[in-house]
Amino acid sequence: MPFNYSLMASRAAGIAEPAEPLLPWCRIGMRIRELLSCGRPCFSFEFFPPKNDEGFAQLRETLASLHELRPSFVSVTWGAGGSTRRQTVELLTQIHKDHGIEVMAHLTCADAARQELREVLGRLAEAGIDNVLALRGDPPGGGMRFERHADGFEHASDLVRFTREGFEFCVGGACYPEKHVEATSMDLDLFNLKRKVDAGCEFLISQLFFDNQKYFDFVARVRAMGIGVPIIPGIMPITNVAQIERFTNMCGATIPHSLLDELRRLQDDHHAVLSLGVAYATAQCLELLQRGAPGIHFYTLNKSPATRTILKAIQTVYPPARTPAGWWL
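RESULT FIELD:
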């Protein structure tokens, strides 16, 4: 998507009258696959378990700030260490009970034995959590090469199958509009994606991206392969230039040159970077939704201001999609 400062304003200017806020009209307790079939876009937030009391205090503030936006669901990532993994289950349970929000647990193959995974899935089921995002995970300890646990799994598709065979969760998976950073080709990456869906994935959430055309091209290729599950675009608002360059280098995503040049010009002005990041992400989200994306998954980094501003703007001016959110059915 070419960078355009006036895109958000032009979208709003073309709306004949304000649309009603896009709040989920489905009942609480629905699985994500069902939420995605309600006919309205789903908005979701991703958090990670904090490492200390200060981090938990910040996360509580973030949850309180974002709760009134009534997200369709929130997800919590899964750490590589045992203590972080326990915190993931506890945090999900707390959000589900205290805030009445649908939740999704991340689960990875990284450094995890089958018995541990089975026990975690059992704890999630006992807590009334219905949704799991099954991932291979990053190499433990910041390594360059993933090595499966002696009694674990090597691929996300194995974890998807294991989860579906032993439990009744709604299982999602990840996808990569610019291909997985370790994949040697897009064709190989799509082949692995089809294996994951064939194993039981019911929806997909994309890696972050900053060029919407890459998402739309990716969806077209996936559909041509006969994969029909919903594909939720993942969006990370830019708030820090060095941080987003580090993230994109790690995951293989790219930033359009025009946007990157402007970010680097503004990098010493935090407020200018934040304003640009919010405007760009809002424009991205509006175009994605107007062209039929089933929702937006926000990578929040446990902070609320940017995501809150973006979603409030969308809920104020967003017109109905030309194609309903259930267009894949």
